[in-house]
Amino acid sequence: MPRIYEGGFRDWVFVVLFENGTHGLQADALVLKYNLFENDIGCGVLYMTDAQKGKTSMFESLKKKLGFGPAEIIVAVPVAGQAVPLSEVSDPTFSEEILGKGAAIIPSEGRVVSPVDGKVELMFDTGHAVSLCSEDGTEVLVHVGLDTVKLAGMHYKVHKKNGDAVKKGDLLIEFDLDAIRAEGYDPITPVVICNTDAYSSVQAHTGMTVGAQDTLLTLKK
Fold it and tell me: What pLDDT, on a 0 to 100 scale, did the predictor assign at position 82?
């Protein structure tokens, strides 16, 4: 007997019947997708043989293939302060969006928290920058200050390491804001979506004072 996996999805229902049980999402799978509801309630049923039991990665792959997922992805503010456009950053790497679209924060405190649920891809030993990948596949770079790599870790304290799982609001980095300014460095903090090409739009919410975990960026597929 096939085993049944049920899950809810916005607006859509899908049915997948595996006839073979050994070929995953290849030719032996029959896929039907259609819109059942006008409201926000949907449902899905995935029929799997014993051979597929527990293979949740296959289920996640199926959702991606069928285009399921949130209509919008929110990237939160990682550090409290004043949100400004990337164009105001005095470094063309950021202001010309060479690394991707995003926004910047003029920090008012020395704490960087995770703007997404996901994992740490790269925590720089110097503590001046961190790259994360969200559960939705969004690649986010948080760069604390301009040219601050030259401080060689001075005035920074790292709280996470490469590969660590994180939730929104988890403390990533602490830094001495006054000391960095006293050293002559601009502490403005760009927040960049490095895989900008994966999204149809990246909307920055700037021109205001923001607290950590407020909405900074809204991404649409």
Answer: 98
Which ranges of the chain have pLDDT less than 70? Answer: 1-70
97, 138, 150, 193 from 145: Cα distances, Å: 16, 22, 11, 17
Average pLDDT value for the chain: 79
CB–CB of 68/94 below 8 Å? no
**Cβ count within 10 A of residue 155:** 24
Per-residue pLDDT at 68: 54
Nearest-CA neighbor of 140 among 217, 200, 85? 217
Helices (H), 18-175: 56-65, 92-95
pLDDT for position 67? 52
Residue 197: helix, strand or coil by DSSP?
helix
Strands 44-48 and 12-18: parallel
CA distance 54 to 57: 9
What is residue 178's predicted lDDT score, i.e. its pLDDT? Answer: 97
- The set of catalytic residues is 143
DSSP secondary structure letters along 149-182: GGGTTTTEEE---TT-EE-TT-EEEEE-HHHHHH
Would you state the torsion angle of the CA atoms of residues 110, 116, 121, 125, taken in this order, to the nearest 10 degrees? Answer: 10
pLDDT score for 196: 96
